[in-house]
Design a protein that fits this description.
By secondary structure, the protein is mostly beta strands. The chain has two helices and 16 strands.
Length: 219
């Protein structure tokens, strides 16, 4: 019982906490499912600390171990602790996962070597050489000529793109449906994530089987 109908400050705080937890559970909100927003500008710097013109964001990419011929060089990528080839590793991630870029470091002879600092949707972060970063992805479905873009996940088709069309990622934070935009033009829409591929090479498209998800591997 509460004397004179009043609740102590500590008890009020406790009940407010219970209320917020219950409300979040009722709305299907989980702290583990929260994905921070990527930056709206990506700084580009040299090793000497010189800041070059920034790139507009959010800059979403796929981390990828697929080479320029569509062949899998490595299914697991090592995230580096610093933008250097010999830097220590700080974890590994599967190829094909989405990430946003929050910094780009330009170094090496004539500044031709680039490293990207990426933050994966699954939570890992670190530096990767540009060889393992795909700014452009490709839509692919076997045995078809056109791929639909939808107004929302599981929604209505609003546009069609030729099979193996290049696209950029606008929102790949959900596990099943991603928002993409055609590289040529302003057409954008939602597609099943499984239709977004790392390479346009036939060898890769016909043989790749990963699903943009991180998997546990036996050591």
């Amino acid at each position: 019982m509460f004397c004179s109908g009043l609740m102590s400050p500590m008890r009020r705080s406790f009940f407010w906490l219970l209320f917020l937890i219950a409300g979040a559970a009722g709305c299907g909100v989980s702290p583990a499912a929260y994905v921070p927003s990527p930056p709206t500008a990506v700084p580009l710097q040299t090793d000497a600390g010189q800041t070059l013109p920034t790139e507009p964001g959010p800059l979403w990419v796929l981390v990828s171990g697929v080479d320029e011929h569509g062949l899998m060089e490595t299914p697991r990528l090592t995230l580096l602790a610093a933008p250097e080839p010999a830097a220590a590793g700080q974890g590994q991630v599967d190829t094909g996962q989405p990430a946003w870029v929050d910094a780009i470091r330009q170094n090496g002879p004539q500044g031709l070597r680039r490293f990207y600092h990426v933050q994966l949707v699954s939570g890992e972060s670190g530096w990767l050489p540009d060889f393992y970063v795909r700014r452009t992805a490709y839509l692919y479905l076997p045995d078809t000529t056109l791929i639909p873009l939808y107004d929302q996940p599981d929604g209505q088709a609003i546009a069609w793109l030729p099979n193996v069309s290049p696209v950029t990622l606008l929102d790949p934070t959900a596990p099943d449906w991603w928002l993409v935009q055609a590289v040529a033009g302003e057409i954008s829409g939602w597609v099943p994530a499984e239709q977004v591929k790392e390479s346009s090479e036939r060898e890769f498209l016909q043989n790749a089987g990963h699903d943009h998800a991180s998997h546990e591997h036996d050591e």
